[in-house]
Write a structure and sequence with these properties.
82 residues; YefM-like fold
Length: 82
């Protein structure tokens, strides 16, 4: 995680935000009152989706089971009827 203070953040806001977006590298900005973390929207959405999935009862077990299933036992995507 990159870290900067609020003064440096103000001076370089555009470059720092672009870097956060381009490289998905969180940015910690410290102030006298504390710190904040800046995330790309992509990282934020991924985080909230992961939190949601982990809150669904039984989902963690299903994901772990699916992860350990050999590809040869899986159904091809084009065979699914969405």
């Amino acid at each position: 995680m990159l870290a900067t203070n609020v003064t440096s953040f103000r001076k370089n806001i555009f470059a720092l935000l672009e870097q956060t977006i381009k490289y998905n590298e969180p940015l910690s900005v410290s102030t006298k009152s504390g710190s904040v973390v800046v995330l790309s929207e992509e990282d934020y959405r991924s985080l909230t989706e992961s939190l949601y999935l982990s809150s669904v009862p039984g989902m963690k077990e299903k994901l772990l089971d699916g992860k350990s299933t050999p590809l040869s036992d899986c159904v091809a995507e084009d065979e699914l009827d969405w």
